[in-house]
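Supplementary Methods S3. Complex input for the flavin mononucleotide-bound model.
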Amino acid sequence: MTPDRRLAGLEDRARLRLPAPVFEYVAQGARDGHTTAAAPGSWRQWPLHPHVLRDVTRVDPGTVVLGRTTAVPFGVAPTTLQRAIHPDGELAIARAVAAADGLMVVSSNAGTTFADLATTGVRWWVQCYLPADRTLALPLLRRAVEAGADAVVLTVDTPVVGTKYSTDPQGTVIWDVVDPSMLRVNFDPGYDDAPGSEKALDLGPHDIDWLRSTTGLPVVVKGVLRGDDAVRAVDAGASAVWVSNHGGRQLDGAVSTASALPGVVAAVHGRAQVYVDGGIRTGIDVVTALALGADHVFLGRLPLWALVDGEHGVRETLSELRDQTLETLRLTGAATVPDTRGLVVVEGAKGL
Ligand SMILES: Cc1cc2nc3c(=O)[nH]c(=O)nc-3n(C[C@H](O)[C@H](O)[C@H](O)COP(=O)(O)O)c2cc1C
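Predicted complex, serialized as structure tokens:
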């Protein structure tokens, strides 16, 4: 099989190898799954207008993310339950990302301690949700800062968890089969029973400033789909906004990130960085997102499917995606990421 086709086949391999509830947990979207299903093809709504007669002898796919260069323009998005896919879980992904000189965002629900993760030497950010009683978030944030997190990613699209349906005839869901020690190891014991530990329903721009001053880290706001919200986040002190619909796992019917990205980029107008995830499965998707103005691109399910083969599988996948990205850059006449701007024609992105 050619390398490119292998990436496309990762999900099918994972379906065969993983216990059914684990596969379903990763693959599923909220409700009827429309937003999840639409994502992978959505980048093709933007045809590329390649340059020719340009020197692409040397091509550099690196990007600068919050002031530091990463060797590849894609990183790993935060996802729960990596240890249910492979016993090495987050550690396998971290080692593979470190080898690619990339960036990993670690879910607050991770099953690996931040201190253990830091031993891999990976550059990493911590992702968090804020609870109704904000002070309950402090111990986890403190552990992340102490272990060397570079930034904090506040996920803002989850005031409640979007409903998902099980297709298992017996109704077995992931939580029936997963060992609870595989997740949430960075929280204080008893966190979930503490009054006020439920997700905040009153999240607002002031939380961005609170998070920044509490942690001393730059704040990235994840789950933005509208230009006006992106501006509110930036006005409140966000260093970056992350265009995401949570892989379609929250609001089914939400706009694709491929459609939302140009409006957010236009509204932010260079005042902060803009990242994106959602349905990124090929190097062509990566370059299309960069061409639309994303400063970095994140991968959710792709590294999870690859994790079935542990660190080796993730390394291979990241390396193939890098190769595809390099080929696409050459074929579009772009020697660097800034050269990709203008490869896609966007009419009248107004910030919504
Ligand atoms: C199994 C799974 C678990 C996830 N867990 C989290 C999480 O803990 N925090 C978060 O902000 N996003 C979470 N996400 C959303 C991802 O960070 C990302 O936004 C999404 O997966 C991107 O879409 P893609 O899977 O099509 O690449 C999760 C996604 C999946 C598939």
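Residues 25-26, 39, 77-80, 107, 109, 127, 155, 222, 244, 246-247, 249, 277-280, 299-301 surround flavin mononucleotide (CB under 6 Å). The longest strand covers residues 123-128.
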